[in-house]
Amino acid sequence: METVKLTIDNKTIEVPKGTTIHKAARELGIEIPVLCYMRLDDLNIENKPAGCRICVVEVEGRRNLAPSCATSCEEGMVVRTHTTRVLNARRTVMEFILSDHPKDCLVCAKSGNCDLQSLAQYLGIREIPGEEIAEMSTYRKDTSPSIIRDLDKCILCRRCEMMCNTVQTVGALSAVNRGFMATVAPAFEQNLEHSTCTYCGQCVAVCPTGALTEVDHTAEVLRALADPAKTVIVQTAPAVRAALGELFGMKPGTLVTGKMVTALRALGFDYVFDTDFAADLTIMEEGTELLDRLQRHLSGDKSARLPIMTSCCPGWVNFFEEYFPDLNDIPSTAKSPAQMFGSIAKTYFADKIKVDRKDLVVVSIMPCLAKKYECQREEFSVNGNRDVDFSISTRELAAFIKQANIDLNNLEDGEFDAPLGESTGAGVIFGATGGVIEAACRTAYELHTGKKLERIDFTELRGLQGVRSATIDFDGLPLKIGIAHGLGNARKLLDEIKSGKSQYHAIEVMACPGGCIGGGGQPPHHGNSEIIKARAAAIYEEDRNKPLRKSHENPFIIKLYDEFLGKPNSEKAHHLLHTRYFDKKKKIVVKH
Amino acid sequence: MSSIKIELRQEDINKIKEICTSFGNDPRELINVLHKCQEHFGYLPAEVQEVISDELEVPVAKIYGVVTFYSFFTMTPRGKHPISICMGTACYVRGAETVLEEFRKELGLQVGQTTEDGKFSLSSLRCVGACGLAPVVMIGDKTYGRVAPDDVRNILKEYE
Q1: Which of A282, A479, A483, A541 gives the lowest tally of CB atoms within 10 Å of its CB?
Q2: What are the pLDDT digits (tens) for A228-284?
Q3: Between residues 321 and 360 of chain A, which touch chain B (CB distance below 8 Å)?
Q4: Whole-number Å distance between alpha carbons of A347 and A342
Q5: Backbone phi, then psi, for A510, in 5-degree steps?
Q6: pTM of the predicted model as reported, rounded to 2 decimal places
Q7: ipTM of this model?
């Protein structure tokens, strides 16, 4: 490999040709501030428009300052990163950016977690010259079921555009107009709701300011909790417990399962349950469907199409309904765990505690923003009463806990309530890419072969590579598994299926890079992929420490089938736990 | 989730497809495709962009981004007699702005708008390469040089 030698702040370093000044400086321990630039190592995600000019440095022999994020190191280069000229330039750039930015930090959803705010503090900006005469570009606020766009706060870093187009290949957002009118918007500047947006929330996850935020449902949840006529149930997704602690100053990857349960109880929820329980239920339904389709397919039944694809992820469901509606019969018909939970809570459990479903409020805590849209889908309600009433994100929960003056760090560990709080290790790994299919393999293997699995950890299904494949030996039957995380990677597998080239029997898709742990409702990762990796490690740690690690061994799942559902894929199970998909692709209407 | 309903005649769709095919349905030819489509339709309504999006497999948001970036492209129908006032440096310093202002007043239009009867549309552009004649106004293919605000009414009379 060709290398170049240069000096940065009088330190010499040798780096591979093509390395940026920013990266080389970081290797020397020199931190150059960035704003628009973002890079997620191991996930192949990089945003490098060199648009904000915060990261400029002085390069000897060059007249102009160079953006270090986009300037390659050259042989013999002499770089200075924090000279007075550089500091002045950064300050001026920041003043310009702030001159067209609202000053409503007091009520901004991003306050305290805002890259722009931190940078303004770091650069010591105390006033904005010309503030009283500066014109502000204003834009109408757009609220969709999941995401709020408040483009007055947009600094045109274009991270959202990169996520939406390059990573997710959704193409809902693009930079539009020019000059003072320039902004990032859906086609024809229509509302997000009328665009191809899947609500994956990755735009929100990378937005450095409050321009893109979630629709906050905490107030509705608070109202329900205060209403003595309502019984309020909460369910928590697996990925939440691996990230919530970050918002309370804990190290990324700290598991806070028990503390979270105690906090939820203190907030006043009547029952604290676990989406992991419903994840086990999903495995029973989806695993049975997989084996059934597989057996029918192998015996020559042409109506049994393979591969079967997972259907837990609402962003992914929105994606294929929009882009691949002709493949609507490929994904499993199983509802997502969160929706299965709602369905069981408002039937089986409501009967058990003798509460009418109208007086039962189901709240889900999710790492996800698409869940907000999912629970509002018409097919997931009965006579206008939703199965899951409100979905709030990890971030909203953290804010709620703080509001209630609950000190998460010093809470005792609590236990989930029975019966919908009991789960196996298979349920918890749903939070990381590869986890759903691993959980399915653990159960499907034992149900198919009748033998006990010797090795529970299917490590070949784990990792962060965008598209992965593995062959699992089902006692002589080689089961070909595909895994994709990030919708752009999922698209590759769908294109293969469409062209008849897919070799897989089963495919798992999660819309967000890293899986739910990297979801749009999680604490901001500020472009540090180590955080996502630490969360994954925490998920697998919780799995390892569970006494039961296969969904079909969950005694409460067995009981649920005995008492209520009959057997997996029974008529009742189909009615309550399965769904159908819709063709949401826009049609060209021809006028004659 | 998309709710835009496209209402184009089949022959319009065929024309767009034909233009896209002539550029090999190559997404890198987007700007050329947009040029040809605007030449044909006179403007680039949302419906046309949607069809191009399907043909070139470019997200329609991106196409809209390109259309709104280049001032040459327009999403409003141009008038029968499109008026362009050059605002390039030479024309500008010789009073193009006052000429533009006069057209605005006479027609009751803002830049980018078209009269209700579809007769005139008003736009500004940057340099037509006739700086010696500054300030320059173009109406359709016809060029008018050394235009003063007082000339505007007479120029418009030619098109009555």
Answers
A1: A541
A2: 999 999 999 999 999 999 999 999 999 999 999 999 999 999 999 999 999 999 999
A3: 322
A4: 9
A5: -125, 135
A6: 0.91
A7: 0.88
